[in-house]
Amino acid sequence: MTVASHGEWSLLEKTELGITGISLEQANLSEVAKTVARTLSLPPEDVYVIDARERLLTLDILRTTIDPYSLVGRERELLTALAQLPGVRVDDGAAVRAEGMLGWIATDAQAGKEALDRSRDMVAEIERTIASRAMVFSTGNEVVSGNIEDTNKPWIVERLRQATFRPTAGPNLPDDTDLIAASFREAAEELGFGLIISTGGVGAETKDGTVEALLRLCPDAATPYLFTVRQGHGRHAKPGVRIGLGEVAGSLVVCLPGPHPEATLGIEKLLDGLDRGLPRDELAEHIAAALRSRLVTMTGSHR
Predict the structure, then answer these.
(1) What does the pLDDT read at residue 4?
(2) Which domains does the chain have, with CATH numbers?
(3) 20, containing H or E segment
(4) Which of 52, 115, 220, 303 could form an S-S bond across to 227 if both were Cys, CB 3.0 to 4.6 Å?
(5) Cα–Cα distance for residue pair 36/47, rounded to 1 Å
(6) What mean pLDDT, rounded, does the chain reach?
(7) CB neighbours (10 Å) of residue 265?
């Protein structure tokens, strides 16, 4: 995807801006860069002259994203502004030469804005489509082997469909952190799923690695504990049971417990939080709080 936050689009590493038919003689390069920045509505520190040769000026835009509407149709305005600087001569045939997003500078203003409007609408539709697509994984060697029936995935797929998502039942994944992480990444980056859900593998045993897989891809993922245990006691290799919510390539990844009542409750709270527009960390705690409450009700005490 090429769209970033705040209406800006990715430059996709095509950051060089060339101007042909321009000559400099004792010109102040800092003023040249500032003039380009001002004309393109950019901070002055984001534009830098990297080469000045006979009839060719090359600048670098020190950004990864930009608002294309600040660029479109600005070629003549930019050349006129540069021609007013001391030591700068702009020939009649001067032109802006750039690839990718920066090429919008040389586009006809009206035609360019109409094309941007169409592109923006198309991108928005693509984003809505991706956001509605969900992939559901069940994890655990016992599920892969068929020793236990996978009741989570069919239920979640149907529940997501009722909630107007377009869900897909993904493969069952063994207790392999590397494979789980790779599956999350593929679903987000290559397959275009905006919501990725897994159940199982969030416990305190060595074999449980679903949350760890998420943390490899999203180190700042929210991972609230449902309850803690005595680490190192029995099979408890970790301090407790937790869920995970994080972002991978702009997609939301949600790691829920494997027991069916907890997985279904987690889904209901997930959908509720999404409807309410909760931020990621609040959404994680919203789900975790409901699961903790259920565990307290079941056990009659805080664990």
Answers:
(1) 39
(2) 5-107 (3.30.70), 130-299 (3.40.980.10)
(3) strand 16-24
(4) 303
(5) 7
(6) 88
(7) 18
- Tell if the pTM clears 0.70, that is, is over it: no
What does the pLDDT read at residue 1?
35
User: Using CA atoms, how far apart are residues 117 and 216, in angstroms rounded to an integer?
Assistant: 37
Q: Could you give the C-alpha distances from 104 to 73, 139, 254, in angstroms and in order?
A: 7, 47, 39
Token duo for residue 116: 């941007």
Q: CA 178 to CA 180: how far, in whole Å?
A: 6
The per-residue pLDDT for 9 is 75
Buried b (16+ CB within 10 A) or exposed e, 211-223: bbbbbbbbeebbb
Asked whether 255 and 242 are in contact (CB, 8 A), the reply is no
Q: What is the pLDDT of residues 163-206, one digit of tens each?
A: 989 999 999 999 999 999 999 999 999 998 999 999 999 988 88
- DSSP run (H or E) holding 253: strand 251-256
Query: Which bin fits 285, alpha (ψ -120 to 50), beta or left (φ > 0)?
Result: alpha
**pLDDT of the residue at 118:** 77
The confidence band for 281, taking pLDDT boundaries of 50, 70 and 90, is very high
* Alpha-carbon 77 to chain mean position: 35
Distances, alpha carbon 113 to alpha carbons 70, 126, 184, 243, in Å = 10, 20, 37, 45
CA distances from 152 to 109, 230, 253 (A): 54, 28, 16
β 251-256/244-248 pair status: antiparallel
What local confidence, expressed as pLDDT, does residue 237 receive?
64
Beta strands in 166-208 (DSSP E): 166-173, 195-199
pLDDT in tens, 201-257: 998 888 989 999 999 999 999 999 998 877 666 666 688 899 999 999 989 999 999
